Amino acid sequence: MGTVLDTTVFIELERAVRKEPAERAMEVVGDRLQRRLGSHEEVALAAITASELLHGVHRANREHRPRREAFVEAVLTAFPILPFDLVVARVHARLWATLASSGDDVGAHDRIVAATALAAGWQLASANERHFARIPGLNVSPISLS
User: Fold this and answer.
1) What predicted TM-score, i.e. pTM, was given to this entire model?
2) Residue 109, Cα to own-chain centre: how many angstroms?
3) Crossing angle for the helix pair 65-78 and 47-59, to the nearest 10 degrees
4) How far apart are CA 5 and CA 44, in angstroms?
5) Most exposed: 27, 44, 79, 145, by fewest CB within 10 Å?
6) 97 to each of 62, 73, 92, 111, 119, how far by Cα in Å?
7) What is the pLDDT of residues 3-29, one digit of tens each?
């Protein structure tokens, strides 16, 4: 089994390594993830997570943008991206219908992240466990790395 990392994990990590020199930041990130998940765990991001991280770069002010962009680009280089393909689309559609009928939706992006993890048969690591715990069949691992 592997782990899909939610955007909240990287928001926490970016905050935690903000004071580290840029060249050391990803080493710290890798060490923290390895301690939390183990050295043999496959780890990846959903494609929408890449978009959310890049969105954060575009929204950053001039002072923070270069550092945030370097961090996000390092993350996108270090972790494989799981695509939103037809398999994920089918899981997403079923999940969306289930959540909509129960009146307990989690939002479009988080549904895609969850569907990506479910389609891969992987767990989801998030700093927002309560939010994702509402998704039936999703194994959510609470993670705090700050």
Assistant:
1) 0.90
2) 11
3) 170
4) 6
5) 27
6) 41, 34, 8, 11, 16
7) 999 999 888 888 887 877 766 777 877
